[in-house]
Write a structure and sequence with these properties.
Layout lengths: L5 H20 L13 H23 L3 H31 L4 H6 L1 H5 L31 H17 L6 H18 L9 H17 L1 H4 L3 H17 L3 H17 L16 H19 L5 H28 L13 H16 L1
């Protein structure tokens, strides 16, 4: 089986989010390249580009809407349920400034479960109320509804048959980019995160359908796009430069098979767990230490604890859930009795 670098890339992106959040949660500005290009934003763009590519691959292997949807649900919701319930009913009452009776009778406590239907609800009663970044329990979850939004759009586009024509997919993506950057003026206007990260998702989808044209020319195309992006940056178009170059660089590197990096998923895919657990871990550490530690101390501690929680989530929740993913009918294992009887059936057929 061809092993690739996607597991490494996803974990690296999750760590970039943890890194960027640590500064914000301590009340500092995170390092930034300008034009909304801090490490966290770059990491989320990376996730969306990878997601678009792999979702298109999944659909091509098994173009069935219900099985496709079931796979997405089994990938996203089990760990989302875990982090939401733990934050609401374990962490929340332990760190809330309210007494337990007031906490458990508050409407806000149960409203937090709205995450499970993809409704953003960031606060719990009395939880993290006095921190430098107050009242935010798990700020990382905001991107999950966006990703599901683009899954639904992908299914609709697939069902109407647009994905049968690779150049139609490319043309639609370019038209979307032309609207976002040329009509909406995204670089100077209020951010529309659904569209902004959706463009990276669409770029990933397009790269999958055009893979025959670039898979053997990765270095040459990467160099050309990097030079083009550099020219755009020189003229002040950082977001356009990012969209033109970054999805290809991510997908080209992800589809490669680099020694050591291609083995990052050997113990499990911890990226999603790190992404959804790191934020409450970081807030809890700041609360427990009254913000007295250095940034590096918080980063080291949060990294270790988040990886531990991610490992637990993967082995006890995510991986067992993924075993339930529906298979194509042809992939379903035969019943043992049918396997034993198959030689007899073949003999009967020959005898006839």
């Amino acid at each position: 089986m061809h092993r690739n670098n996607f597991d490494f890339l996803r974990l690296a992106a999750a760590m970039m989010v943890l890194f960027a959040h640590q500064f914000a949660l301590l009340g500092h500005e995170p390092p930034s390249l300008g034009a909304r290009l801090d490490p966290g934003a770059v990491a989320v763009a990376t996730f969306f580009a990878i997601s678009g590519f792999l979702v298109a691959q999944s659909w091509t292997v098994d173009p069935h809407a219900w099985r496709f949807a079931a796979r997405r649900v089994l990938r996203i919701w089990p760990a989302l349920i875990l982090t939401t319930v733990v934050c609401a009913f374990v962490l929340g009452p332990l760190v809330s400034t309210l007494p337990a009776s007031a906490y458990f009778t508050s409407h806000e406590t149960y409203a937090y479960l709205s995450w499970l239907r993809l409704r953003s609800t960031f606060n719990l009663p009395g939880v993290f109320a006095n921190l430098p970044y107050p009242n935010a329990v798990n700020g990382s979850l905001w991107s999950i509804p966006l990703e599901v939004h683009w899954y639904l759009i992908f299914i609709l586009i697939a069902l109407v048959g647009l994905l049968r024509y690779r150049w139609a997919v490319a043309a639609a993506t370019l038209a979307f980019a032309a609207y976002h950057f040329g009509v909406y003026h995204a670089e100077t206007n209020v951010p529309q995160w659904t569209n902004e990260y959706g463009l990276f998702f669409c770029a990933g989808v397009t790269l999958f359908f055009l893979r025959d044209y670039w898979s053997d020319r990765k270095l040459l195309i990467a160099l050309g796009l990097t030079l083009l992006a550099g020219g755009l940056v020189a003229y002040g178009h950082r977001l356009i430069a990012m969209w033109i170059a970054w999805p290809f660089l991510v997908v080209a590197f992800g589809t490669s098979s680099t020694p050591i990096l291609r083995d990052f998923g050997r113990l499990g895919d911890f990226s999603y767990g790190v992404y959804i657990f790191a934020f409450p871990v970081q807030q809890t550490l700041i609360l427990a230490t009254s913000g007295r530690w250095s940034v590096s101390q918080y980063l080291a501690s949060a990294t270790v604890l988040s990886l531990m929680l991610a490992a637990f989530s993967w082995h006890c929740v995510e991986e067992p859930a993924l075993r339930l993913k529906p298979r194509r009918p042809a992939e379903r294992p035969k019943h043992p009795i049918s396997t034993l009887l198959s030689p007899i059936r073949r003999l009967r057929t020959r005898a006839r």
